[in-house]
Amino acid sequence: MRAVVTRVTEASVVIEGKVNGKIGKGFLVLLGIGPEDTEAEAERLAEKVCNCRVFEDENGKMNLSLDQVGGALLVISQFTLYADLKKRRPGFSHAAKPEIAIPLYEKFMAVCRGRGFTVEQGEFGADMQVASVNDGPVTLLFDTAEV
Questions:
Q1: Of the chain's two ends, which shows fewer C-beta atoms within 10 Å, N or C?
Q2: In a domain, 147, yes or no
Q3: By the 8 A CB rule, do 20 and 128 touch?
Q4: What CATH number does residue 36 fall under?
């Protein structure tokens, strides 16, 4: 699994002209799922994201986690994180098929919700317009193959 996590002051997702999810302070998570990914990886990645200490403390140091600042998550499915970029036109055969990806996308969000976080979301496979106000900017790349 791969996640691009951006610290935001606000983020939203619009589908067919309607706001589907919106958060204030927290993380915008673009989540990509590969064909070999498992529930255990979804759980591990959710724990890493939720515990990531990138919010500033009283001394201006990135030392606080999402729960310490009362943050939320906006999670967007992002199969393009598994794009094959060897040619000019990206190929997406390295991304998991929906029958694998949807349950793992849901599992990731369930783990975050289980930790007490507000989790807003996009819609798997939908055409979405995602807006965010990046804070910092702070953007991190998580990959379960490397952590």
A1: C
A2: no
A3: yes
A4: 3.50.80.10
Which pLDDT tens digit goes with each residue over 26-66? 999 999 999 999 999 999 999 999 999 999 999 999 999 99
This prediction has a pTM of 0.94
In this predicted model, what pLDDT tens digit does every residue of 68-95 receive, in sequence order? 999 999 999 999 899 888 888 887 878 8
User: How far is residue 52's CA from residue 50's CA, in Å, rounded to a whole number?
Assistant: 6
Count of domains observed in the chain = 1
- Residue 70 tokens read as 């009362």
- Read off the DSSP letter of residue 57: -
Residue 40, domain extent: 2-137
Question: How far is the CA of 72 from the CAs of 10, 14, 29, 45, 68, in angstroms?
Answer: 10, 17, 10, 16, 11
CA distance to 83, 84, 86, 98, per residue, from 89 (Å): 10, 9, 8, 22
Residues identified as active-site: 78-80
